[in-house]
Amino acid sequence: MSEQALRLGTRRSKLAMAQSGQVADAVSQVTGRPVELVEITTYGDTSRESLAQIGGTGVFVTALRDALLRGEVDFAVHSLKDLPTAQPDDLALAAVPVREDPRDVLVARDGLVFAQLPDGARIGTGSPRRMAQLNAYARSHGMTIETVAIRGNVDTRIGYVRSGELDAVVLAAAGLNRIGRIDEVTDFLSVDTVLPAPGQGALAIECAADNADLIAALGELDDPFTRVAVTAERSLLAALEAGCSAPVGALADLLDDGQIAKEMRLRGVVGTTDGSALVQLSTTGPVPETHDQAMALGRELAAEMLAKGAAGLMGERAL
């Protein structure tokens, strides 16, 4: 490969720049080439509407993909949970690196954990998935909370707590880790309380499908376990016909005997945002060895969830 710099397309947010910078360093190491960041503004960055209103799926991704297809950048880095579940034929998902902590976290006033929040506590999140599960947990534990729809970057969201406008906000652990602000977390929410979004904590590195050399180079950053886990989660999401703004949580994790991962457990949840109805199921099977096996695991669990009434809980179907 020549010494010409590779161009990495990234969103402009502080978080996107941080995670793209980390990928750029890793790509430089495996290719021996410099990597320059090309900042691209997406519709999801400029719109002030809620993600559910503007369509959710793909709003942070489309502009990056367009730049790839026009040849303005060589590859792009996305938060994998933002990717639509259908992969375009002309783009390759070249690498899914090792996943960060997939959990959701609470940043609350006075260092409080979730169980210590006062009655009527106002909790900010832009995610119907988080609202559904937080409200369901509160109902089952005799707590009264109010979930408040918010948008904005990490500073804006945590600012609502610092100003006293909200008692707490819910964010992704991975994002705070990547920007060096994990010390502001007051509670790590167990995945038994709140299942994360499908693919949460994982990154997707995408490039043109016809660039075999670059696909091979980027593939060095791929983590096979992370890839099969997020493939199963996203297959569940696709089979439920839900976009990334739907109240669907999913997590595939590896069950090991202390030595080697023998099985994969996939958990899924869908619920109404007020938490009054929730369908939560899990399945366990051998660790998928192929893309098709991981897809099948997700589809099987989705079929069980649909049989239990999941479809009726998602409101508007994402078309």
Please tag this protein with its features.
319 residues; alpha/beta; 5-stranded mixed sheet; 9 helices; 24% strand; globular
Q: Could you spell the SSE succession in H and E letters? A: EHEHHEEEEHEHEHEEHHEEEH
Largest sheet: 5 strands, mixed
Question: Helical residue percent?
Answer: 25-40%
Catalogue the unreliable spans.
50-55
Rg, alpha carbons:
19 Å
Structural class: alpha/beta
Strand order of the largest sheet: 2-1-3-10-4
Strand portion: 15-25%
Q: Give the termini separation.
A: 42 Å
Helix and strand arrangement:
Blueprint: E1 6-10, H1 14-31, E2 35-39, H2 43-46, H3 62-69, E3 75-79, E4 91-95, E5 104-108, E6 121-125, H4 128-140, E7 145-149, H5 154-162, E8 168-172, H6 173-178, E9 187-188, E10 203-208, H7 212-218, H8 224-239, E11 248-256, E12 261-271, E13 278-286, H9 291-307
Parallel strand pairs: 1-2, 1-3, 6-7, 6-8
Antiparallel strand pairs: 3-10, 4-10, 5-8, 5-9, 11-12, 12-13
Helix pairs in contact: 8-9
Quick take:
The protein has 319 residues and is an alpha/beta fold.
What does this 3D model show about the protein?
- The protein has 319 residues and is α/β, with parallel strands linked by helices.
- 31% of the residues lie in helices and 24% in strands.
- It is built from nine helices and 13 strands.
- The chain has helices at residues 14-31, 43-46, 62-69, 128-140, 154-162, 173-178, 212-218, 224-239, 291-307; strands at residues 6-10, 35-39, 75-79, 91-95, 104-108, 121-125, 145-149, 168-172, 187-188, 203-208, 248-256, 261-271, 278-286.
- A five-stranded mixed β-sheet has the order 2-1-3-10-4, sandwiched between helices. A five-stranded mixed β-sheet has the order 7-6-8-5-9, sandwiched between helices. A three-stranded antiparallel β-sheet has the order 11-12-13.
- The N and C termini lie far apart (42 Å).
